[in-house]
Inverse folding.
């Protein structure tokens, strides 16, 4: 299994008439990696997955799997398994027949199919439901059935298109953990499309952030979170989102609401920038930016404060013990390396 | 409570009137088919009579037996149904799924053929069939029946195919199935309700057809709808035999209706309830 499932996307362009769904997408996925395609809807992540699966053809560019150019080959010749958002189970077949279908198509004998189906069903804990039809299963069980159908074939590549989006919140968390464990134990390469950054952050080894048909950033979730390389990524990753405040940079510091904050950037000169500070990095302390608490969202263990700093809204996350009252006046700070700076015009990280 | 009762009564009364209007001719046929010719013409009509199967014996095995015509009707109807379905299923699938040039036009054309009044085309059909020597042949009648059953069947089936999500098919491709195998193993089993409905309609249309049959058939191939009129002549009408043939001609329709009832009900509600026709 190891060493299989290496993917290379080379300058893929996809046009729908005049509209460019993908404007030259390039990335590599290593064998055994859990790779997430993250982005808002319409950003091109699903198109990317469909091109990889062979369900859509790119307008230009090449797709390689394990070094083989598969751009022109049919979906069924690619040895790729996929879990669809709707699960796409075959409603007229039993769970057993659903899982067995890819093996039947591969012309395996009945003697080989039986144990393989049971094994796959056991891995996702639905081996007691093999005689049911999909319509008789709960949403979570249907999802497992779709997973079993995907893993039974031991394909080189495992594609998941928002597989958790139809589950309720609790089940989603459980399945998320299981999905990760399953992928690890199989050692298979997984490509995972989601618009839910939390899913991508927790599941992925690496992720690609899609915006408007382009990849903005590729990297480990922690790296992307710590160092978003553009304003759009900064605004997209993190919940609640990063505070983005237009400001003037001058000689290593920025001025917000009449107060100077030192940054980690040490270049001289002056320019217009956008300052990014994560709500969790906002600290309450003396001699900072004066702020009035306008609103408090209590989340139990933490609280989100909406702070008015001379007309600028800044949100801060504070832990349970430090929640001030609404209307209280306080002063806020941020450490230099918690301050992200973005160029105002190019929107790139400085 | 009383208002509800009154309303129920009115609804039932109206339903009863409709039911009577529909059922009366059938009961009339059944009763008269069991009478002798004398009893049929008795006035006032006899409600009490000794039933006889003589009329049935005569029309099936007598000198003017219509048994060959029943067989002709079966050959024509089954032939039309089989050929229609073999062509309509792939055509409807193509119209529902594939993108090709002129698809909209093809869809419109299919429907437009249904709007032509049959009397307008019956003479050209007759001339064409005579030219190729297909008057009074099975292939001739089946060919003409195809001209209206095929568009109808395609039009009916397209909506069933459109009801199946694209992803289902894509999943099958990724599972390693070809388009043909996907159609056979994944799609068709899910539209079997619609296929059953279409088979019933096509068969019934062919079985009940009279206008084209009367012009295009002859002494060799004459469906029962045409042959019935053997019992109507200038001198007399053999009511009992006519009624017996009617009952015999109704039988396959009734049997088919009962057999396919579940599928028809399910099939007809397809558009009404989302996903109702699947599974």
């Amino acid at each position: 299994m190891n060493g299989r499932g290496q993917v290379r996307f080379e300058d893929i362009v996809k046009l729908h008439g005049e509209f460019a769904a993908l404007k030259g997408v390039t990335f590599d996925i290593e064998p055994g990696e859990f790779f997430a395609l993250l982005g808002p809807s319409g950003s091109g992540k699903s198109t990317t997955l469909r091109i990889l699966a062979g369900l859509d053809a790119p307008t230009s560019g090449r797709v390689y799997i394990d070094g083989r150019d598969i751009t022109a080959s049919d979906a069924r010749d690619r040895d790729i398994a996929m879990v669809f958002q709707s699960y796409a189970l075959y409603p007229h077949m039993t769970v057993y027949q659903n899982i067995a279908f890819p093996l039947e198509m591969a012309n395996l004998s009945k003697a080989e199919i039986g144990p393989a189906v049971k094994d796959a069903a056991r891995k996702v804990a639905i081996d007691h439901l093999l005689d049911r039809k999909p319509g008789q299963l709960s949403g979570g069980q249907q999802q497992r059935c779709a997973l079993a159908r995907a893993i039974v074939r031991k394909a080189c590549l495992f594609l998941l298109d928002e597989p958790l989006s139809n589950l309720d919140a609790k089940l989603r968390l459980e399945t998320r953990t299981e999905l990760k464990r399953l992928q690890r134990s199989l050692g298979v390469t997984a490509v995972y499309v989601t618009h839910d950054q939390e899913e991508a952050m927790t599941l992925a080894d690496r992720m690609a952030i899609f915006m408007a048909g382009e990849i903005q950033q590729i990297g480990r979730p922690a790296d992307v979170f710590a160092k978003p390389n553009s304003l759009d990524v900064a605004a997209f990753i993190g919940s609640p989102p990063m505070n983005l405040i237009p400001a003037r940079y001058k000689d290593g510091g920025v001025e917000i609401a009449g107060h100077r904050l030192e940054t980690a950037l040490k270049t001289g000169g002056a320019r217009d920038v956008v300052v990014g500070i994560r709500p969790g990095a906002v600290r309450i302390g003396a001699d900072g930016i004066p702020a009035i608490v306008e609103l408090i969202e209590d989340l139990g263990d933490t609280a989100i404060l909406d702070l008015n700093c001379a007309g600028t809204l800044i949100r801060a996350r504070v832990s349970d013990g430090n929640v001030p009252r609404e209307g209280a006046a306080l002063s806020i700070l941020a450490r230099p390396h918690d301050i992200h700076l973005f160029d105002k015009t190019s929107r790139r990280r400085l | 409570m009383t208002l509800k009762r009154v309303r129920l009564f009115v609804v039932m009364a109206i339903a009863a009137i409709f039911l009577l209007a529909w059922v009366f001719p059938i009961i009339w046929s059944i009763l008269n088919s069991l009478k002798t010719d004398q009893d049929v013409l008795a006035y006032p009509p006899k409600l009490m009579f000794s039933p006889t199967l003589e009329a049935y014996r005569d029309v099936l095995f007598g000198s003017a037996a219509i048994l060959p015509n029943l067989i002709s009707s079966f050959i024509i109807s089954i032939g039309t149904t089989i050929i229609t379905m073999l062509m309509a299923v792939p055509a409807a699938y193509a119209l529902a799924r594939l993108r090709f040039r002129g698809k909209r036009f093809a869809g419109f054309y299919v429907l437009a053929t249904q709007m032509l009044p049959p009397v307008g085309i019956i003479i050209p059909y007759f001339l064409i069939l005579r030219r190729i020597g297909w008057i009074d042949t099975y292939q001739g009648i089946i060919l003409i029946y195809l001209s209206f059953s095929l568009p109808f069947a395609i039009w009916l089936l397209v909506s069933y195919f459109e009801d199946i999500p694209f992803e289902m098919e894509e999943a099958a491709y990724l599972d390693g199935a070809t388009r043909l195998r996907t159609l056979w193993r994944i799609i068709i089993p899910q539209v079997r309700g619609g296929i059953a409905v279409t088979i019933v309609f096509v068969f019934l249309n062919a079985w009940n057809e009279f206008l084209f049959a009367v012009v295009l058939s002859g002494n060799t191939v004459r469906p029962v709808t045409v042959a019935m009129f053997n019992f109507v002549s200038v001198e007399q009408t053999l009511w009992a035999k006519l009624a017996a043939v009617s009952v015999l001609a109704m039988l396959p329709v009734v049997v088919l209706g009962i057999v396919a009832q579940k599928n028809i009900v399910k099939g007809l509600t397809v558009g009404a309830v989302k996903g109702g026709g699947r599974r």
Notes: Residues 271-279 of chain B have pLDDT under 50 and may be disordered. Chain B is about 75% helix and 0% strand. The interface with chain A takes residues 165, 167-168, 170-178, 181, 185-186, 189-190, 278-279 of chain B (CB under 8 Å).
